[in-house]
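User: Please predict structures.

Assistant: First:
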Amino acid sequence: KDIKGGQLILVHVNSNLKTIPDVADIPAEADPLLAPAIKEAQKLNVRYRCEAPSGKPGVRIQQLAEELDVDLLVMGSPERRPSIAKGLPDLDRLLGGSLSDYIRVHASCPVLLVRY
C-alpha cells in the first residue's frame, strides 16, 4: 500500500478450459476465486489489477511475472507434510512436484510462499 507506483497483480490461471463453455467472456475481475483478494485490496485501498490467463499454471505465472516485470511473487501453498516429516527435504520428491515448487525453481524474481 505504501510502495510508490506499486500494484498488486491478482492471478488465477484456468488450466481446464474445456469444462467451462464461455470462459473467455468472463472478465478477470469477476473470477470468484479472485473475489476475496479483490475485496481485501479495495478495503485497504491497494491498487490492483486482475489477470485470468489460461494454460499450464506454472508456465503462465512464470510468463506473466516476466512480462509484467514483477518484483515479488506471493503464493499460497498448502502444508503437505505431516508434522513428523517437516525436516525431511527429500519428501517433496516422493510426494511429487507442486505448483509452488515449480514457481520457486523457475521464477525470475523472489517467491514468498505463504502456508495455509
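Second:
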Amino acid sequence: MKLKKISISVFLVLIFGTWTFSFGSFISLMEEHFSLARGNQSPTTFSSTAQREKNTDLRFLFAESERFLSQDINLLLGASDRETTLENYLIDGENILSSLNYLESSLINEESTITSTRNTCETQLNQANTLYSTSINSNDENGFLSSVESAKEARTCIAEQHVNLASLQALRNKRDRYAQIIDARVSYLRNNQDLIIRHYDILKPQLLSNLYKISVDLEQSSL
C-alpha cells in the first residue's frame, strides 16, 4: 500500500478518520479543556434525551460534566420544590452518563481502527526493510531507493498513529473519570432519594439546634 507523505504539523492533530462526532484538532480540544478548568467558559445547558446523540461532541460533554458536578447540592436540596428539583438533577446526570457511554463505544471502535492502521504501517516497514537488505545484496539501485522511500513513509505513518493513540487514550481517561464520578453521585442520590426528600431539612443548623433544645427541655422536665 502506497502511503502519502504527511508534514510534521499533522503530528499535532488527531486524525480519527470518519467519525460520528466532531472532535476538531488536538490543540483545539486541549485549549477547550484548559479554558473549562480556568472557568473561562460557560457551557450550555444539557438538552433532553431525544437530542442526546446530536450532543455527543466530546468538548460539549466535558463542559456538561463540569457543569453538573459543580452544582451546589446543598442549595439544590434546599429548594422549596425539592422533589422536582432533585429529580430533574438526577435525570440530567443520567442523560450525561448515557451520552458519555455512547461516546465510549465509539472511542473503542476508533482505537481499533487506529491500531489496525498502525499495524498496516508496521507491515509496510518490515517489507521495506526486507527489500532494503535484498537490494543491497543484489546491487539493485531501484529496489534500494524504493525501500528507503517506503520505509520513510511507513515510519511517518507509525509515528502519526502513535500520537493518535496516545491522544485518544488521554481523552478516554478523562471521559472515564467524569463517568465514574457522575455515576457515583447519581447512584447515591437515587438510592437515597426518598430519605433525602423527606428528611433533608433536619440537617439545617437552626433546625438541629431547635431539636437539641427540645431534647434537653424534655429531659429536664422528666426529672
